[in-house]
Amino acid sequence: MKISTRLNLLSLVTILVMTTAVFGAAVFFLQADQRQSRERLMLLELHSATQSIRQQLNRSGVVAASKEAEQQLQRLRRKEGFASATLFIVERNDNRFVYHPDSTIGERANYAFVDEMLRRQTGSLEYDYRGDQRMAVFHMLEPIDWLVGVAVSRKEVYAPLSGFMLDHMSWRWVFVLQGLPPLVWAVVWWFAVADRAGAPAPLAASPEFAALCPSSATCMRLDLRATSGGPGAA
Q1: Is 1 inside a domain boundary?
Q2: Per-residue pLDDT averaged across 79-98, rounded?
Q3: Residue 211 located in a structural domain
Q4: Is residue 153 within 8 Å of residue 133, measured between CB atoms?
Q5: Cα(82)–Cα(193) distance, rounded to whole angstroms?
Q6: Triad 119, 91, 58: Cα angle to 5°
Q7: pLDDT for the residue numbered 114
Q8: Residues 56 and 121 in one domain
Q9: 166 part of a folded domain
Q10: Strands 86-91 and 146-153
Q11: What pLDDT, on the 0 to 100 scale, is given for residue 155?
Q12: Quick one: which of 118, 124, 177, 223 is 20 to 30 A from 93 by CA?
């Protein structure tokens, strides 16, 4: 390959790498900002739902609080960005659901992420639930030690990012920008990783190797072992 061709390819790879780095950094910061914004909004919804659940619990008991949680979830799912929302209540003492849309009241909450939430007591957590990556915010409802949380799918959390890109550029540019990083990595890999198939082992070309070989037969056996990675390879 001519030197000028190599320089042109190197320049192209450099430009692609820099472009990908800038785009990757921008996406990273946009995702972080989107996550923080969604987490704040989820916390507001969580406090609002918890207040209503507490009122029903004080007025009419646990069953009424569970029904109120279901109503709060239906209200939440009608809001934009909360179509995949889940509201859940877990009793800390015996780790049972007080409310969950996919479980019955009193059912055991045998999930590792529930145990982690109970350990933290308050905050946010990302976890996998039946193959769906979800993000939750949660806190303890005192003094009865109920864990109350709101969770949404990560796909819905970051969906506005693609929408933001579509608002400022065509779908073709979004397709190109999202597909560019793997293509750039393929080009970098092609030129950066050497093909050493059939090349002698580095040990065979070293002066130390020649000094340690008293005969050609010994050198041949060591060379074959070093090349194959078998016993005796350095």
Answers
A1: no
A2: 93
A3: yes
A4: yes
A5: 46
A6: 125
A7: 95
A8: yes
A9: no
A10: antiparallel
A11: 86
A12: 124
